[in-house]
């Protein structure tokens, strides 16, 4: 029996007939530049096929209730085992999901409290904020209440006719409910309303008003807003409405989410909410002192959280506030607790967000998973994780159409001695920059105290590149994205949040290049621009502008085939009958950004080349871009905003060491154009390239939040902080 997973003739996405064998029960790392095809093998082929084959083992009744997977494009895929994907997708925005619930430590604490709590509130559900028995009745266990933000809802200086109801345009339906109610003088500014009039406008209701011919029940602005928009939980809030809503701590439970009986039950003077508000490292100490076997399962999980470098988290932290890297490491913790063996675990850059200090502990956990008898497959850029692998597959040589081949297979040692780009990068030890730029001036951020920051005052140099460093949880993101960006009105913040995109978004739509392109075609031929949109008038009637037709038969895998009417172009025959520079609109969307930039003058498209994305086609669906590609596309879109101050949160996530060089060249360009650039980062190559470093620490969470070093990288290399030690060790 073969010990290997055998893959033959892989052609998913950009893969060029790739064949390879992966050793089972070993740690295999996939490397290569962003867009080379790592995810296409690991997620797009191995994980998908393994799930598809697993689903096939069920009867039709169950199979019809499982997600359907299409067979990846490949000749043969053999010896796969059941796959578990641990990725950086945010862990659901559900307001009821906390670090404690997702790691299943909260239920363990509930059992502990039902046994040891004084007085006991009852069985374990009496301590659950997601169960009617335990939840605070005032906020239904959410810990927060929501109310309309009056400052944003009304403008007291204006009258109804002048648009005092900010979200509701004059003349619109909602505006009419008030301005045409006959209850108010529509020309009187709201600040001149009597107390009664104001009360009626905002909170009145319950009576009928005649609106010229028909009657309806009057509701004050706040009453109506609350009924229409705030009836669901926080996460049901419409994006558009969110800015109009103020959240407040629930007055009944003080944010603890639990009812009085649950909160009255204590162990050594602390209730379950107090336990969940403690940092994991502190909670470990507390439970160890309790010395009770009932606490052991919780302790084992808490120690794993600490081991993945997340000891600064609290169990009551909402999962929607976690970064992608934090979320992924928590998912890892959950799987480490499982006793399943013989699985294939698939990770997407598990080191994301981790300081070099903590990477080896993460590596140990991956090896622990392997040693339980699992196959572990990881996409990674971090040298330390690569060097831990039993086997490495290096993809390349380039990105997109220039990638899709295996350029190296073997041990990490052999890779580091090889001539591939990754091999050369692994050998490289970048020196410090010869000379740092001189600041043009200083911006002082005084009294920064968000999250764990301890009232710090930081000077940020203007007109240079600054790195904000420190171990994970020390406060880098908080300082850079919350405190600094909030104090510079012109700051452009580029963080890790996903780009909002519909299934029909493409680089062209995202960069706002689609409208000019449609106008160009329309004006050249004297027709409507809508004809050149596959979302409206120009859509191929057969596939409705999708370009493909999906056949989903009950007992078979879904099959997607290219629409034979439009040949996959998505456009109607009429739209395709018009040409500009000899090309149809579909031809243009099939051009790479580099080609298109040479022929057409379209916003943003030329910048894709500078960001190393010149190989993307204008019409490639955004859903198909790799994480690194998506981030750089976002950069291309945001970089033309003239900010003066650019703040980046861990921009190297998803980037190969060679991609990091491209990114640094781009940051240099920004600085040389007169901008101030601040980057929260842990990658030593970025730190070496900075002109100035603000190092936070000394540790994470409660033990962090202080400035432990400010100065040039050369001085940092001689200092004694965690970042300093790793910087010094990485120099030639
Ligand atoms: P990596 O993981 O190495 O960054 P990916 O495997 O995500 O690279 O992508 C490899 C190439 O295939 C990229 O150029 C990407 O844009 C392209 N690609 C990925 N998914 C799709 C898809 N569904 N359709 C078309 N192209 C795709
Ligand atoms: P870093 O960027 O250095 O990893 P962060 O700024 O993300 O650190 O976190 C610093 C501290 O602030 C940590 O203790 C973290 O748990 C806390 N924190 C960060 N974001 C939030 C949030 N949305 N809600 C509550 N605490 C947070
Ligand atoms: Zn409450
Ligand atoms: Zn079609």
UniProtKB/TrEMBL annotation:
It is found in: Cytoplasm. It comes from the Bacteria. One of its GO terms (biological process) is DNA repair. Keywords: ATP-binding, Cytoplasm, DNA damage, DNA excision, DNA repair, DNA-binding, Excision nuclease, Metal-binding, Nucleotide-binding, Repeat, Zinc, Zinc-finger. GO terms for cellular component: cytoplasm. InterPro entries: AAA+_ATPase, ABC_transporter-like_ATP-bd, P-loop_NTPase, UvrA_DNA-bd. The keyword Nuclease does not apply. It holds the Pfam family UvrA_DNA-bind. PROSITE patterns: ABC_TRANSPORTER_2. Belongs to the ABC transporter superfamily. UvrA family. Residues 426-729 form the ABC transporter domain. GO terms for molecular function: ATP binding; ATP hydrolysis activity; DNA binding; nuclease activity; zinc ion binding. This is UvrABC system protein A.
